Amino acid sequence: MKIKFNKAGLVALVFMASCLAAAIVRAQQNSAGHASDFSSVEYFDAPHRQQMKSRLSGAEASPQAGGLLAIKQLKLEMFDTNGVTEAVVEAPDCVYDTMSGVASSAGHLQLQTGDGNLQIEGDGFLWRQTNQWLTISNHVQTVIKGALESKTDL
Amino acid sequence: MKIIYLIALSALASVGILRAQTNAPNSNAVAEILALVTTNALPPKPTPPHAPTRIDSDSADFDLNARQAIYSGHVHVDDPRMKLTCARLTVDLPPTGGRINHIFAETNVVIDATDEKGATNHATCDKAIYDYNVQGVMTNETITLTGNPQIVNAQGTNTADVIVWDRANGHVHETNPHMSGENLDGAGANTNGLPAPKLF
Fold first, then answer.
1. Measured between alpha carbons, how far is B152 from B169 in angstroms, rounded to an integer?
2. B168-192: per-residue pLDDT in tens?
3. Do A145 and B52 touch (CB under 8 A)?
């Protein structure tokens, strides 16, 4: 079963928390309790209501016991009000606690800014929506392009 | 021989006339020659792109509200001009397209830098703070070493209470310096005579 819920204004998402909360709501509404190839979009408030703020997509979303939601092939894209991509977060596996607003995984996480100047990846992560705090537990690798160039280099 | 020379001269002259006629609005021959010289001048040497800076660590925390990254455990920074290791590194993340302007390294900080002449500098300290800011036309770029800072290079070993590398001005400032080794002119006094390695 393939479910698409990409309607404008469908849900107000703030990063993973509200995105994933919306996903589980839709999945439950479709009785099977399981969504595949889903995506969900959050739009900016006025005066940029036509612009996407973020788009969350995934290959699979399955409700788990205790208010958890298991997500496969998570991809979160964040945009500015001009439609320019600010960051893209990808994780092959992720579990989201809809009650506490915490997303976590023992798997890989990759984050890249839209301009490609900052790339972060590592294994095992915890995302706390309430204070916008991301912890990567192991093998953290960051690549920063051009961020330490100065006039003295020229 | 003279005939060839004359032919060559006349050919050159006719070329000049033709050019002058063709470019009537800019018929000044000197200007034309200058324009040719300018056109054929070698382009300025392109600045090689700065290789990316890489940071590896055991773990990291990212405060997206404060735009701050905190790296912990076996932190390794690999930049084209220096290598740094420490136990904890805090980086203020710049906005998109921006430049990092504050880095704080702490606990067992070791910095190995090579200056533009290829000389190596080995620095150790408890804390190192990198600051970058531009005020008007002034660029300030410093690395402040505190907590038993020590620099070892070809000139000797330098220790002080505080060592500040002023990258923008190419100076090293020391507070209460203690130096040993070779070429130590003015030892015991505050000195700017140390070579200024370019860290970061």
1. 21
2. 777 888 999 876 655 444 333 344 4
3. yes
Q: Are A97 and A68 in contact (CB under 8 A)?
A: yes
Query: Is B59 in contact with A138 (Cβ distance < 8 A)?
Result: yes
The greatest distance separating any two alpha carbons of chain B, rounded to the nearest whole angstrom, comes to: 83
Q: Considering only CB atoms, which chain B residues are within 8 Å of A141?
A: 54-56
Most confident residue range from A3-12, A93-102, B41-50: A93-102
Which range (A77-81, A146-150, B191-195) has the least confidence?
A: B191-195
**DSSP sequence for A6-62:** --TTS----HHHHHHHHHHHHHHHTSSS-EEEEEEEEEPPTT-TTSEEEEEEEEEEE
Q: What is the pLDDT of residue B182?
A: 52
How many beta carbons lie within 10 A of that of residue A119, not counting itself?
16
The secondary structure element, H or E, covering residue B9 is helix B2-22
- B117 CB within 8 Å of a chain A CB: no
Whether A141 sits inside 8 A of B62 (CB atoms) is no
CA dist B97 and B53 (Å) reads: 15
pLDDT attached to residue A62: 92
Packing angle, helices B29-40 and B2-22, rounded to 10:
90
B127 vs B105: CA distance, rounded Å: 6
Q: Which of A137, A145, A153 sits opposite B59 (nearest CB)?
A: A137
Q: Chain A residue with minimal CA distance to B166?
A: A152
| Burial (Cβ within 10 Å: 0-12, 13-18, ≥19) of residue A21 | buried
Handedness of CA A6, A11, A14, A20 (dihedral sign): negative
ipTM, two decimals: 0.75
